[in-house]
Amino acid sequence: MTNIDLSTPLFDLHRHLDGSIRLETILDLGRQHNLPLPAWEIEALRPHVQVMEPQPGVMAFLEKFNWMIGVLVDYEACRRVAYENVLDARNEGIAYVELRFSPWFMAQGHGLDPAGIVEAVAAGVDEGRRETGIGVKLIGIISRTYGPETGMKELQALLTQRDKLVGLDLAGDEANYPGAWFEEHFRIGREAGWRITAHAGEAAGPESVWQALRGLGAERVGHATRINEDPALVDYLAERGICIEANLTSNVQTSTVASLAAHPMKGWLERGLKATLNTDDPGISRINLPYEYDVAAPAAGLSVEQIRQAQKNATAGAFLTEDERKNYLNWGKQ
Q: Would you call 41 a catalytic residue per the annotation?
């Protein structure tokens, strides 16, 4: 028995492609390229790559990426990982997924050209889309952790495949690299025709969400766990129907919230906020999207009706054209 409404398409709007690399692929690429992996069997590798217990913060959680991006030795590896992301989403029953990635972050381990990574990722996603038939769109990330100057270089790399991407996101060290440093980057992104989302209100407070909305032009907000500290912000999000990309399990694993029971999502849905359920980094968190619906959401206190409302919210919040959205709204009626 599942809490997923099978008559409604299942969407994942907040999923990091570079946090969704199979353990088998890490081992395979490690062997191919003689990489110094910390272990050579699945179960021995798992604690090095996946979260086994809550981490002391977001940046500690992000350290788990090291062995994932560490195997991205060439553009073929990047293409393969993107392709496998699409197959894995299909195998979870997902009808539509927005995969996000930071080409600068992915390039770091082996000195690749970020523009080459964007091209490889787009090719892998195209291949996966053709094979599976599911809906997939790409969101480029500017990683704030590298600072605004490098962020501009990352933006230029993303722009080389402008028509292959639907949106632009800001991620990384929110506490120490404020969104205000990246307003010019996002102005350029909006002018390129991209939709805008941003990680905000996770490691910093409500002021970070306000900045994302007003300074970056964000149409959606990732995480947003601290918005309740500012009732005016909650009202603003509710009145404008701004989508929140909630990530229940990862918020506990980063110690952003103390437990699933303490997560604010139930209250958000009661207030009428357009909150959605997403996976964030399923390869690191050891989850998939059905797990978030059937295990994490009930543990967070959501009723079946609220869980299914979150599922509908994702259809409304997705970066789709209106014609595409209508096709998904007719899901199960054909």
A: no
